[in-house]
Please model this.
Amino acid sequence: MDKTFQPAEIESRWYQEWESKGYFAPRDGDGAYCIMIPPPNVTGSLHMGHGFQETIMDALIRYHRMRGESTLWQVGTDHAGIATQMVVERQLEAQGVSRHDLGREQFIEKVWEWKEESGGTITRQLRRLGASLDWSRERFTMDEGLSNAVQEVFIRLYREGLIYRGKRLVNWDPVLHTAISDLEVVSEEEKGHLWHFRYPLAGGEGHLVVATTRPETMLGDAAVAVHPEDERYAHLVGRMVELPLTGRQIPVIADDYVDREFGTGCVKITPAHDFNDYEMGKRHGLPLINILDDDAAIGGEAPEAYLGMDRFAARKQIVADLDALGLLEKIDDHTLKVPRGDRSGVVIEPYLTNQWYVDARALAGPAIEAVENGDIQFVPKQWENTYFAWMRDIQDWCISRQLWWGHRIPAWYDDHGHVYVGESERAVREQHQLADEMSLRQDDDVLDTWFSSALWTFSTLGWPEETPELAKFHPTSVLVTGFDIIFFWVARMIMMTLHFRNEVPFHTVYVHGLVRDAEGQKMSKSKGNVLDPIDLIDGIDLETLVTKRISGMMQPQLAAKIEKATRKQFPEGIAPYGTDALRFTYYSLASTGRDIKFDIGRIEGFRNFCNKIWNAARYVMMNCEGQDCGQDESLPVELGLADRWIIGKLQETEAAVERAFENYRFDHASQALHEFIWNEYCDWYLELSKPALGDPEASEAAVRGTRRTLIRVLEAWLRLLHPLMPFITEEIWQSVAPLAGKSGPTIMLQPFPNSAPEAMDSAANADIEWLKGVIVGIRNIRGEMKISLGKELTVQLRNGGEDDKRRLQENATFLKKLAKLSDIVWLEEGDEAPAAATALVGQLEILIPMAGLIDKDAELARLSKEVTRLETELKRIAGKLNNSNFVDKAPAEVVAKEREKMQAQELALQKLKEQEQRISQL
RNA sequence: AGGACUAUAGCUCAGUUGGUUAGAGCGCUACCUUGACAUGGUAGAGGUCCCCAGUUCGAAUCUGGGUAGUCCUACCA
Model:
């Protein structure tokens, strides 16, 4: 074995082995366990958030696989309609070609080409993380099978009246030329203006003033509204005003939606270009006057003078024209929320179009109930509130997108605009007995990508066929996801699955936090703070990292800033840490919090942990390979104190890890393992094993017992650690297992360790704690008195009880070795004690003679520090015990515990004071 | 505007049902290349558990109020 752990070669070797041997596919087992991967964008690449999520799923999957369950981790990607189409369009653009030049069919071919070319990135990355996904079942939302499922669902919902088509206001992206759902619109506060315009009253005696943030929409105004109880304007309700620039007259109406306090209290109403105005328009029977075209330039029923003008140019023009007419009252600065498309970043326009909708309200009922009655549980539970809040106020879901890349809507129109929904044109003709010569035209639109991902849990298992996989693995066990897509995806999956399968898609939703950078900032390409998990695994030099971060940016002007920040944060680039260290870091961060700040310091610590594991195994192998380590069960075995202790501690750790897995507390699992392996197994057990193995007087059975414990405990914790650190555990396990009497081709398929409570050994724990106490006491004096470790000491023990005496007798060898002692003397009562530095373990006094070693003042200082500490502590306890309320009301055992504590501390204090006095007299 | 979450060591975070001397990792200080490991060892320093009040014998933990921050939902033209 190498002296340091070198992950790179080990990782690729083992992943290939596992995959080629088919270990990732479900095997027969007790019960089924299934996780569906939240499908990443097929043309995308993994970021830190993915890494975190995949790593958590892999731990769960490996854990349940080792527990003997029939385990499926379904892999797949989604087609990411808008994102992918945008990428391909941009590529074409670079060649000076638009998608319209190519035409729909050719364009889609190009997209498929791009998918073939770039689709491997994400799956390669998943493999690098060690994800044990069943690649043989890989699916893609645009696959034939999944497309069939999408079509089936659309048709059935349509026939049930749960999908309808309607002309409504939608969120229109004027650059992407498509409708998007409410969830795809992000509103951020931006600085803008509030323009005040005078609208003259028809008849010519005066005007009223309206305020607007979007002046250009005035071309489409259909009314001016005031509050019904607003006395200032009561006399105007029912009158008409002249709408400037349009030659139209519009009425003044009363509606209590109007806020009297805001602006002038008069609101211009533009039903075709504002969601609230649309609703008000419906209440008052106002006309919908569209004044935009698909590019959000002025169009529709707008006055000719403005036709074709871009909306923002028109805004300027209209303000200028009104000003010229003397109708501009004033312009105020105003901060407002501007809705932008989450993909394009452009300002979204409410725009009147024909779209397809899902009646979400109807589907929401059962979906709410499933969470209320516990069929589905969120972890942490608080996310259920988020879910309920959204579901109880759910809006109909606009599912049509004016894109080419996606599932085309299976609807055909005749020349009269009648719509026919069915599997194909032929099916539609047959069903409705339409003559062959009658022309039919398929709907141009495709479905929202989330429409197909909503079917993910069952469509990937073969639905609408009733496959054996569907029967076995559905409902799935747990969904692992971020809270940012509870609405987008989780809620919609629950609705669709309940409707079509009459069962939940999953029993548990584990909601994890979002990975942020070290400053707590969200990682994003435009901020230039993204980290590629693969770069943490393989390492990356600074120049490559900088280039990677500033290339292909939407806003190249930020490049300099990003370069500077990157050079500052990673002056040396990023070192290679390996997959296991990265994974363990993720787990250690997976607590219940919402934000996960990724600190590079953590991963370095866990890389060191990997090295520790590697070297511990190296030590064990050096001592066990080619030796008798108890493989022959018929030979006698004697277990020493340390052996019994570490076996017990292993059981405790196994129980803690299991509990952590059951509660999705991966941070607890990683902490328990880290603590056990480093602070117990390595720091103490391995050190204790050295004198045990080196003891010339030890019996063969005892040495065999130590070797057997070394190797078996190691073998067990390798399995315990495997779901979190798959590679290093596999590599080591291969050589360790045979010596521990285990065999098998891979650790992956070995049973997960079960805690055996009967092997926990409280007597051994107590003895080891005593041993540690004595050693630490001596080391402490050594440390503070600057006595080098090379100097062997003689210590004297005094005032101990029977237990102390026994423990000393049994462990003198260990004490000598670990505390570097030449001799230990037990002082009987009456024996003369020299001037010495003192440590206490319970009642037992440990004396280190000062002669020539220890400075009087230094020891006095040390003692006085200790005395002060004890006195403070004693005062606190005494205060408690002198309080009759405490003594009367607190549980007897708590009081007894405090009394005990006080007695022990008093005794200790007394001894230290005596010691202080004695030394000061020297 | 409504709601949620967070606040613990210099930094990143644990802290189960109220009773610990409030913990870990990283960082820091001192010493140490001893045969698994310097990606290491040993020892150490470091905390007003955001603030105020309350409940309680007892509060980092429970309740109320406040402050700061983050996020979500809905928005006033």
About this structure: The mean pLDDT of chain A is 90. The longest helix of chain A spans residues 666-694. The two ends of chain A are 55 Å apart (CA to CA).
